[in-house]
């Protein structure tokens, strides 16, 4: 099995999008994008974990299981020869949307905003009023959290259960957040007053408890500035 690409191969590959496949069942478990030898980085990283007690990601844990079974992860370059990173991001996001149960920690770049929707959803989303950044009152201390429809369905269509747990937030800012908006496909579907934030040590994340409130932000599209290139994080501070 090839362990790294030659310089000539790297020069011709440019940016690419790849899939990692479990050889035991043929299932894709990770989608990524990169250049150079990025596709090999996960496998090499898994070999550096020595202690079984170390907290490791689902991706690394699965790779170790495969290697412990005496097998190699199957790496497939899904699309190559891409000239710029932005296009690679879009291909990655589109591919992530096609698979369930991936070990990716985050969804694809802009996948939450620009992923698959049917023709009825096009009108229900893009026919709505769009907020401007200045429309959001800084005193509301509002945090936007983008969640995917498939995660809501997995939580019995309970948006509160989906949005409240658990997010990577700044320790110095988390207690300043007073309001949370659940954003689905770029639209604010629910708004919650935060009663308290608490730390989830096993996830190294934060979760909140709160109550649903009426809000002028409901059923509005979030500002374009919060959907543009480079904003891959599902959480956005508006203050």
What is the compact description of this entry?
The radius of gyration is 20 Å and the shape is globular.
Could you please describe the fold and organization of this structure?
- 26% of the residues lie in helices and 26% in strands.
- The chain has two domains: 103 residues, 3-Layer(aba) Sandwich (GIY-YIG endonuclease); 119 residues, no CATH class.
- About 5% of the residues have low confidence.
- It is built from eight helices and eight strands, in the order H-E-E-H-H-E-H-H-H-E-H-H-E-E-E-E.
- Helix 2 crosses helix 3.
- It is of the alpha+beta class and 239 residues long.
- The strands form two sheets. The chain has a five-stranded mixed beta sheet with strand order 7-6-5-4-8. It has a three-stranded antiparallel beta sheet with strand order 2-1-3.
Number of strands: 8
Uncertain runs: 50-55, 107-111
Shape: globular
How are the strands of the biggest sheet laid out side by side? 7-6-5-4-8
Largest sheet report: 5 strands, mixed
**What is the succession of H and E elements?**
HEEHHEHHHEHHEEEE
Structural class, judged by helices and strands?
Answer: alpha+beta
Mean pLDDT: 85
Strand content: 25-35%
Helical segment tally? Answer: 8
Mind telling me the C-alpha Rg? 20 Å
How many domain regions?
Answer: 2
Which percent bin holds the helix content? 25-40%
End-to-end separation: 50 Å
Task: Please write out the topology.
Blueprint: H1 7-13, E1 15-22, E2 27-34, H2 38-46, H3 58-68, E3 74-82, H4 85-96, H5 111-114, H6 119-126, E4 142-146, H7 149-154, H8 159-163, E5 179-184, E6 187-200, E7 205-212, E8 235-237
Parallel strand pairs: 4-5
Antiparallel strand pairs: 1-2, 1-3, 4-8, 5-6, 6-7
Helix pairs in contact: 2-3
């Amino acid at each position: 099995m090839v362990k790294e690409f030659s310089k000539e191969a790297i020069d011709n590959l440019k940016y690419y999008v790849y899939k990692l496949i479990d050889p035991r069942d043929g299932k894709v478990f990770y989608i990524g994008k990169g250049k150079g030898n990025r596709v090999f980085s996960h496998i090499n990283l898994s070999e550096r974990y020595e202690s079984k007690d170390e907290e490791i990601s689902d991706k690394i844990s699965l790779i170790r299981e495969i290697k412990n079974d005496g097998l190699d992860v199957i790496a497939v370059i899904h699309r190559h020869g891409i000239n710029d990173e932005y296009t690679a991001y879009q291909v990655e996001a589109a591919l992530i949307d096609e698979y369930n149960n991936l070990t990716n920690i985050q969804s694809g770049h802009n996948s939450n905003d620009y992923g698959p929707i049917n023709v009825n959803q096009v009108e229900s989303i893009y026919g709505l009023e769009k907020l401007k950044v200045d429309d959001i009152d800084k005193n509301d201390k509002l945090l936007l959290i983008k969640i995917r429809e498939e995660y809501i369905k997995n939580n019995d269509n309970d948006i509160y259960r989906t949005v409240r747990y658990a997010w990577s937030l700044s320790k110095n800012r988390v207690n300043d957040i007073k309001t949370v908006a659940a954003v689905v496909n770029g639209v604010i579907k629910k708004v919650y007053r935060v009663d308290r934030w608490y730390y989830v040590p096993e996830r190294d994340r934060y979760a909140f408890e709160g109550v649903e409130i009426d809000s002028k932000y409901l059923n509005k599209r979030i500002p374009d500035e919060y959907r543009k290139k480079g904003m891959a994080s599902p959480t956005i501070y508006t203050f």
